[in-house]
Design a protein that fits this description.
With 345 residues, this protein is mainly beta. It has a single domain, classed as Tachylectin-2, Chain A (5 Propeller), CATH 2.115.10. Helix content is 0%, strand content 45%. Strands 1, 16, 17, 18, 19 and 20 form a 6-stranded mixed β-sheet that branches. A 5-stranded antiparallel β-sheet has the order 11-12-13-14-15, with no helix packed on it. The chain has a 4-stranded antiparallel β-sheet with strand order 2-23-22-21, with no helix packed on it.
C-alpha cells in the first residue's frame, strides 16, 4: 500500500433480485422491518444472516424492538433470492440473540451507561465455531464498546466471549468491522468508525486466538521503513465509510464498502488484504439517489447502505444484501438482494 493516486472507478450496475425482509417475506418470523443482514455459512452448511434493529411492524421504530436477530437461509436459493428456513429463538419468532435491555430516551437521565441498541458488524465461521462482532451503542454513531459473541450450535444460540474493546480503541477506528479467514491461518479485518466519516485500517489475528485481544496486530506505515505488522494502524484508504464486507470469492478477496462520502456501494477486487487500496480495481455497483430517481434495475437506490457479500457468489455473479431506510417515513426499512457481474466492469 502507498499513497499513489487512485485508479479509475469502474462501473457494473447491480440489479435487484428480491426483497429479503418486510411484509410478505419475513412475517413468519415476527419481522416487519429490519436492516443489515451480514451473512456467512454455518458449519452445517446453512446460511446465517444477522440483522440489526428489528421491529414487528414494517416501520422502523415500531413495536417489538430487538437487535440483533438471526435468520437461517437455504444456500441453494441465493441465485434467485435467499429463502428463509428458520430463525434463532424459541418458536418461529426471531428473538434477540444478545442479552441486554433496550433503554429508551426517557430513561437516559437515570442511566449514564445507557445502551439503546447492539448492532452486528460481521459474522465469521472458524471450524465448528461461529463468531459475531457487535457494537454496543448509546445511539447511532456513538459506540460504548465492541465485543465478540460465539455460537457452537450453528448460530442458534450465542454467548459472550468476554472480549471487549472500548469505543475509543485505536482512535475510534475499531468500531465497524469486517473479517475473513485466509488460507494462512490468519483472520484479516478491515475496520472504521461508526460515524461514516473515517477511512479504513487493517488488522490480523491468528484464527485460533481470535478472542485474545493481545494477539491482534495492526498494519501500519513508518517513513523510511514502509508497511509492517504490529505498528499503530495507518489509514489504508482515506474516505468516509460505513458498512463493510470482506469475503474470499473464487481466488480473490472482495471488499464491499458503503462509501458514504460518495453515496454509493463499491467493491474492491484484491489479490490479498495487503494490496494497495488506492490502486486496487474498484467497481461501483450501486449509486445512492433521491427517492424519485430510484431504478432498482439500473443500480440506483435511495438511502442505501450495507452491501454484504452473500456466500455462493462468483466474480461474474456477485450477490449483495443491501439495506434501505426512508428516514422521513420509516418505510421502506428493509434488506434487499442485488446481483452484478464484476467481470463486465
Amino acid at each position: 500500500m502507498n499513497a499513489a493516486s487512485g485508479s479509475p472507478v469502474l462501473r457494473a450496475p447491480a440489479t435487484k433480485v428480491a426483497d429479503l425482509t418486510g411484509p410478505g417475506h419475513t412475517d413468519a418470523f415476527g419481522i416487519g422491518g429490519t436492516d443489515l443482514g451480514t451473512t456467512t455459512t454455518a458449519p452445517d452448511g446453512r446460511l446465517v444472516s444477522v440483522f440489526g434493529d428489528t421491529f414487528a411492524s414494517p416501520r422502523a421504530g415500531g413495536r417489538g424492538w430487538r437487535s440483533p436477530v438471526v435468520l437461517f437461509g437455504d444456500p441453494a436459493s441465493v441465485p434467485t433470492g435467499v429463502r428463509w428456513t428458520g430463525s434463532a429463538g424459541r418458536g418461529p419468532r426471531a428473538r434477540q440473540v444478545v442479552r441486554y435491555l433496550h433503554q429508551f430516551p426517557r430513561w437516559f437521565a437515570r442511566r449514564p451507561r445507557r445502551v439503546t441498541t447492539v448492532l452486528p458488524t460481521d459474522v465469521l465461521t472458524v471450524g465448528d465455531t461461529m463468531y459475531l462482532h457487535v457494537m454496543v451503542c448509546r445511539e447511532l454513531g456513538h459506540v460504548h464498546w465492541t465485543e465478540i459473541h460465539s455460537s457452537r450450535d450453528h448460530g442458534v444460540t450465542w454467548r459472550p466471549t468476554g472480549v471487549r474493546w472500548p469505543g475509543g480503541h485505536l482512535g475510534g477506528l475499531f468500531q465497524m468491522l469486517t473479517w475473513e479467514l485466509g488460507d494462512d491461518g490468519w483472520v484479516y479485518a478491515f475496520t472504521t468508525g461508526f460515524q461514516r466519516a473515517h477511512g479504513l485500517v487493517l488488522h490480523r489475528v491468528p484464527a485460533d486466538r481470535l478472542t485474545t485481544p493481545g494477539a491482534w496486530e495492526s498494519w501500519g506505515f513508518v517513513p523510511g521503513q514502509g508497511w509492517a505488522w504490529g505498528l499503530p494502524p495507518t489509514v489504508a484508504l482515506p474516505g468516509a465509510y460505513g458498512e463493510l464486507s470482506l469475503r474470499r470469492v473464487q481466488d480473490r478477496w472482495l471488499l464491499s464498502a458503503f462509501d458514504a462520502g460518495n453515496y454509493r456501494i463499491d467493491v474492491l477486487d484484491l489479490a490479498s488484504p495487503l494490496d494497495d487500496l488506492h490502486t486496487a480495481r474498484r467497481v461501483t455497483v450501486l449509486d445512492g439517489c433521491a427517492w424519485e430517481h430510484e431504478d432498482h434495475a439500473g443500480g440506483r437506490v435511495a438511502q442505501l447502505y450495507g452491501g454484504y457479500v452473500l456466500p455462493g457468489s462468483r466474480l461474474d455473479d456477485l450477490h449483495l444484501v443491501v439495506s434501505q431506510w426512508n428516514t422521513a417515513r420509516n418505510w421502506p426499512y428493509r434488506a434487499m438482494q442485488f446481483r452484478t457481474d464484476l467481470t463486465g466492469a
